[in-house]
Amino acid sequence: MPLPTTAEWSIVKYTLRGGRQQGVDLIEANNGRLKFTVIPTRGMSVLSVESGDVRLGWDSPVKEVIHPQFINLESRNGLGWLEGFNEWLVRCGVEWMGHPGHDRFHNASGEEVEMDLTLHGRVGNIPASQVEVVIEAGPPPRIHIRGLVEERVFQGPKLSLWAGISTELESNSVTIEDTVTNLGTDEEEFQMLYHANFGPPLLQAGTRFLGALKRVLPFNAHAAKNLDRYDKYGGPQPGFREEVYCLQPLGGSDGMTELLLQNALGDRGVSLVFPVTQLPFATLWRNLEVDGYVTGIEPGTGYPYTRRLEREAGRVPKLAPKSSRQFTIQVAIHPDPKSVAAATQRIQTLQGTESPVLDVRPPA
């Protein structure tokens, strides 16, 4: 395509063969400086992002990109989602997200009945029914990849997600651009959580998390034991039990907040910038076990408690009939000390003189 650029950019689509990844479609986009891989077959998840010697992603024990037809979300007492979990970014939702649990709803006869919710919902294991690649000529030129993932139920919720990712040619960043729509005639609950996962080389002994925050709360009593060092990381530890912290991001005058993960030397990092009006909560997940060394930075409409508890806490939003909600997250790779320091300074400016409150009480 005749674009006003000298960048050697490309977009390639291919299909995996063999094992449980049989039939999985991948789209690999290269903007001339940064490369990312999207999985339309797995709800438009992003397998990885790479730029120079920085990779956004992690080394999951799950090595294949597993087709949803081989995933039973109800297995392992509702934890079947973990059987395919290896992406850098996987969306959790749309009808529900969070831990497995029991919830209640009214059926078509108006009777209140019980339903079992599986881990983090279904959207990450639903193939996109329509996929688009759009090249914006600019200037600057920009690549857009987006797909339609639908959760429609007869006599139930009818929710759609246009899940997108874009990047400017030769930039060091990507932007997540999503729209959730209620296609039904009744008001519907929905939940979204952006499960962004980071392993080496960014995650290592001495890695630090920084964010402009109002409050930090432990997810449970186990996490509360280490609340005073929630933002500091050690190396891989055999037998480590995951720790989860619930964050309340602090927005600036423009409504934007920023979260940063930097390596031990402070010369490499990644930041997530998003509007707190769209995503008022975030979760920090720390899994420093040797077999699956990873941390997650997860902006969301709520915390990953099961939906019943989130509803009781007032953190389950609703969509009016035929209405939509947009979500945007700017993800930037920082390849040198100068860019890491600039991100750190922006966060410190947002934070101001008030330190985040460390509250030992879990929020739910």
Give an overview in words:
This protein has 364 residues and is mainly beta. The chain has one domain: Beta-galactosidase, Chain A, domain 5 (Distorted Sandwich), CATH 2.70.98.10. The protein has helices spanning 75-78, 221-224, 307-312, 337-351, and strands at residues 10-15, 25-30, 35-39, 45-51, 54-56, 89-94, 101-106, 112-117, 130-136, 142-152, 158-168, 173-182, 188-189, 191-198, 208-211, 213-218, 243-249, 256-262, 269-275, 281-287, 294-300, 318-319, 324-334, 357-358. The strands form 5 sheets. Strands 9-10-11-12-23-19-18-15 form an 8-stranded antiparallel sheet, with helices on one face. A hairpin with a 4-residue loop joins β2 (25-30) and β3. The protein is globular, with a radius of gyration of 20 Å.
Quick overview:
The protein has helices at residues 75-78, 221-224, 307-312, 337-351, and strands at 10-15, 25-30, 35-39, 45-51, 54-56, 89-94, 101-106, 112-117, 130-136, 142-152, 158-168, 173-182, 188-189, 191-198, 208-211, 213-218, 243-249, 256-262, 269-275, 281-287, 294-300, 318-319, 324-334, 357-358.
**General shape:** globular
Number of strands: 24
Mean pLDDT: 96
Weakly predicted, low-confidence segments? none
- The oligomeric state of the chains shown is single chain
Q: How are the strands of the biggest sheet laid out side by side?
A: 9-10-11-12-23-19-18-15
Provide tags for this entry:
eight-stranded antiparallel sheet; 8% helix; mainly beta; Beta-galactosidase, Chain A, domain 5; 4 helices; 24 strands
